[in-house]
Fold this protein.
Amino acid sequence: MEYIDLFDTGKVSRICYGTLSLSKLQNDNTVANNVKLLNYAYQKGVNFLDTAELYDNYSLLREFLKDKKREDIFISSKSYAYDKKTADYSINKALKEMNTEYIDIFMLHELDNGNNFLGHYKAVERFLEYKQKGIIKHFGISTHRIKAVNDCIKYKEIEILFPILNIKGIGIQDGTVDEMIKNIKLAKNNNKFILSMKPYGGGHLINDTKKAFNYVKNIKEVDSIAVGMRTKEEIDANLLYLEGKKIPSEITEKLNTQQRKLLVSYWCKGCGKCVERCTQNALSIKDNKCHVDMNKCVLCSYCADVCDEFCIKII
Ligand code: SF4
Ligand code: SF4
């Protein structure tokens, strides 16, 4: 496993375990089985894990942490806090539910731009107070927007930048992947730690995972890549890609036969664009939300292209 300096706090693995894949939003496995997966990745060198208040899986992290030395693990989390009270709520919840005395990285979740950041500034001030006390080690933002990546350069408070990045630019809401990379480079030149997310574009790039992973891996400004993993084989494959090694055929076979489904996230606005795009008639709008008929869906991903909200994922 390759490690990279998280400023002067310690060395984090170049693969960060994205635990959205182990939350109720995407997974109905037991906590015990999910802890086994985290332990499997940890034994292989993954010491960096990302979660969020939204994922509602702090109890999973608590189970994982309980037999480890806290200083050996790096946890990143995030919330939509917008004032001091909501910032206090987010930090206290994270500390209590993960049973930890500190959080290595805490971020504002899904920021759009600098104005949006300033709109949350009461929360930012509170997070910075927690940082002074050592309860947060580093502060940052996550985003699906190039504008936020560019605007973060102005703010020294933002140490960690967590942008979406993949070979096709899936999920980037305001431009192309080339524009995103240009701005990530600027941010890196301004001393931000870059943790990229969604190298497989929410599951839509699984037909050529090697190419998709290597694309992000080869962008030298990316310090660590957060990737969601739901099986041992997915963990093995990502670690082998990172090391530039070949994936054994038995792992490839298991990955190819892994059951997958289309997931529509709860924030779907029911606009119906995806329904029009699907030639299989697999989608419909009910109660203002998109629903999938998995008997008809062929997992072609075409519908994801027209969803401006990045709601549609293959898991
Ligand atoms: S395009 Fe996106 S937001 Fe619109 S109905 Fe489909 S999933 Fe929902
Ligand atoms: S993945 Fe393809 S078949 Fe499935 S719902 Fe989307 S467009 Fe239709």
